[in-house]
Amino acid sequence: MKRKALIAGNWKMHTTVMDACHLAADIAGRCTDISDRDVLLAPPFTVLSEVSHVIRESPVMVGSQNVCWEEKGAFTGEISPVMVKDAGGGAAIIGHSERRQIFHEDDALINKRLRGSLKFDLLTILCVGETLEEREENKTFEVVEEQIRSGLAGVGAAQMAKVVIAYEPVWAIGTGKTATKEQAQEVHAFIRNRIETMFEKSIADQLRILYGGSVKPDNVDDLMAQQDIDGALVGGAALDAESFGRIIHFR
Ligand code: PEP
After folding, report:
1. Is residue 20 within 8 Å of residue 55, measured between CB atoms?
2. Does residue 96 have an active-site annotation?
3. Ligand 1, atom 7: closest residue by C-alpha
4. What are the tens digits of pLDDT across the range 96-136?
5. From the alpha carbon of 12, which atom of ligand 1 is closest?
6. Among 33, 70, 96, 111, fewest CB within 10 Å belongs to which?
7. Does the CB atom of residue 214 touch ligand 1 within 6 A?
């Protein structure tokens, strides 16, 4: 089954308005020929509008790095899906390991965010992945399965068309250590199998599963050649237009 690749850049807490506009314009300029793949930028909330404006005539999409489940209300410090859309965003990343680890977001909260994001029709990227300790204790599959089951609780089959899963082993994020293509493929195939069990084969076949964790120009081609790797969620290398441009143009 051929799935359209998705290359997503998570800018984390980087870029002021001027940096963001330059970076987005540079990336958009490298995406004029990408009809066979999707590209998504997830800048900080503060520059979402400006980045949306800069890329408006390109095929590049914009999304947020997190989202609240409510449309509006007393949720100090949060951003609603309606606000993301109002700023030109069409997607949201949920459950990034930095949200889980630094801000103690648990599976129940992540599920709330995910369902809120889907309710407002955002393309929703659910991040899952084990820590080094969990991998060393042979708990990778158990941890990933639980994150998927809890993260997708209450999600209907029809909504799965808007879900993307990103497998990001925590030990590979920002460390320069990439999972080998075999390690990544093994977990991706496992995720697809679990989705088939939870939903049905056609949904599992259509689901895009991204790999994240030190994706760089020199490892993207090998990773993308794996059967169940449908794209990449990129942190560090997404802040450099040349590197990200090369990753977008994986071969
Ligand atoms: C990420 O933050 O999702 C990520 C994968 O970061 P990096 O590419 O820097 O490892």
Report:
1. no
2. yes
3. 235
4. 999 999 999 999 999 999 999 999 999 999 999 999 999 99
5. 2
6. 33
7. yes
